[in-house]
Amino acid sequence: MKNASVQNAEHLYQDAWRVCNDSLKSDVALLYPPHMVAIAAIMVAALMRGGYEKDKELKNWLAELNVDYEKILEIQQMLFSMYSVWRTFDEQTQLKGLLEKIPRPNQINQTAHNVHIQ
């Protein structure tokens, strides 16, 4: 990929790595092989940069790969869905409600606890 003469290859390379790292925060890494996640990450990074439609070299490079593009599109959808959730998630309001639902451990009676220690 870096050796190809893709426009802005270095920026695309960095963005694709970010997408790969973000994919580890979803089920994608558990459901699909790494090479498919990497290809989807390259495509997502290119789409997010807005250069995918203009970059014929990238399209040609991707077209030469022997992969199941239906699976690649599934991975892309999962990644875009994850980013959509991240964009709409409001930590201040939603996280507070989630933390309140976590059960708290019972307070241990100090005298009973001290008896068991001795």
TrEMBL record:
- Which UniProt keyword terms apply here? Cyclin, Membrane, Transmembrane, Transmembrane helix
Q: Which InterPro entries match?
A: Cyclin-like_sf, Cyclin/Ssn8, Cyclin_C_2
Q: Does the keyword Disulfide bond apply?
A: no
Q: Which SUPFAM superfamilies does the entry link to?
A: Cyclin-like
- The organism encoding this protein is Heterodera trifolii
Task: Give the residue spans that cross the bilayer.
Answer: 32-52
Q: What name does the UniProt record give this protein?
A: Cyclin C-terminal domain-containing protein
Q: Domain of life here?
A: Eukaryota
Domain Cyclin C-terminal stretches: 6-48
UniProt entry tagged with the keyword Transmembrane = yes
